[in-house]
Design brief:
The chain is mostly helical. It has helices at residues 2-9, 16-39, 64-82, 86-104, 106-111, 147-169, 175-193, 207-229, 265-271; strands at 125-126, 143-144, 201-202, 205-206. A hairpin with a 2-residue loop joins β3 (201-202) and β4. The longest helix has 24 residues, at 16-39. The protein starts with a helix and ends in a 17-residue tail after the last helix.
Length: 288
């Protein structure tokens, strides 16, 4: 809803954000699952493993960084189909993405999963020892860092921050989305570093820590490159030739002028609509 409103305020057709999101969500789910499978190969490959479990998405296992990759691919396809500039959509999406990710983290609370290291802080989370994710060797009643709560707060604050930054500096051409990648990546570097759930380790770091570092670097590159390439304001939300509401996109053979209430004989004559007319729409007509 937030993305649609922001995109419409930039001049895009109302509802076009949903058309793009349909592609983004489908690709996001697929690649999120593939990312999880290939970063947790021991759960799906090897002796005694059920390869079909790859398809059992209802049993959990979706990676946010995979969904970002797949979602970007789907959004690009959706933008190509609708004619919306990809970077315009990305900027409109950025604050809403953080809010959506904050909402999504509530699922970790209900499932009591993806928590952090033991802590004595008063807001520590108590996990039942019967939980499969409970670390071996720890006593009942041990409190853990609620990393999903940290991420919820980080994301909500980030969404507000992006909106304030955009209002002050009017960032476009993907620059606001670049700040989203930087902000989210910085937070995930810390959250992932204190989590205790199993993860692949490469070069001494959890794979999602490395993915978060990569997100920050990509965000910096996008911001620097787009600032140099596009220092000005976007001409509009659509690529040239695909603008919404153009006169040459009129589908009706009649125009608003054909249905004006006649005021005199001359107007009556001009207002009559020929039953077999094949004339093209008049210049400057509105779409019916």
């Amino acid at each position: 809803m937030l993305t649609s409103r922001r995109l419409t305020r930039r001049g895009a057709e109302p509802g076009v954000a949903v058309d793009i999101a349909l592609w983004a969500v489908v690709f996001g789910i697929i690649v999120a699952r593939l990312y999880h499978v290939f970063t947790h190969p021991g759960d799906y490959f090897g002796e005694g493993k059920n390869l079909w479990a790859i398809l059992f998405i209802w049993e959990g296992g979706n990676a946010i960084f995979g969904s970002l990759i797949g979602g970007a691919i789907g959004a690009y396809i959706g933008c190509r189909i609708t004619g919306v500039r990809f970077w315009t959509f990305a900027d409109a999406l950025a604050p809403g993405m953080l809010l959506a990710q904050a909402i999504g983290r509530l699922g970790n609370w209900f499932n009591h999963e993806l928590f952090g290291q033991p802590t004595n802080l008063p807001w520590g989370l108590e996990i039942e020892s019967s939980n499969p994710a409970f670390p071996v060797g720890l006593a009942d009643g041990t409190l853990f860092h609620p990393t999903f709560l940290y991420e919820i707060l980080w994301n909500v604050f980030g969404a507000v921050l992006l909106l304030l930054i955009e209002r002050e500096w009017r960032l476009q051409w993907g620059k606001l989305f670049a700040l989203y990648l930087i902000w989210y990546g910085l937070g995930r570097i810390w959250f992932e570093s204190i989590r205790v759930d199993p993860s692949q380790i490469f070069f001494g770091l959890r794979v999602n820590v490395e993915a978060a570092i990569l997100a920050v670097l990509i965000g910096i590159v996008i911001f620097v490159v787009q600032r140099r390439r596009h220092p000005g304001v976007e001409p509009g939300p659509y690529v040239p030739g695909r603008e919404w509401g153009r006169d040459d996109q009129v589908e009706s053979r009649y125009t608003a002028e054909d249905f004006e209430r006649p005021g005199d004989d001359d107007d009556q004559e001009s207002a009559e609509v020929p039953a077999t007319s094949s004339a093209s729409p008049r210049s400057g007509s509105t779409r019916l």
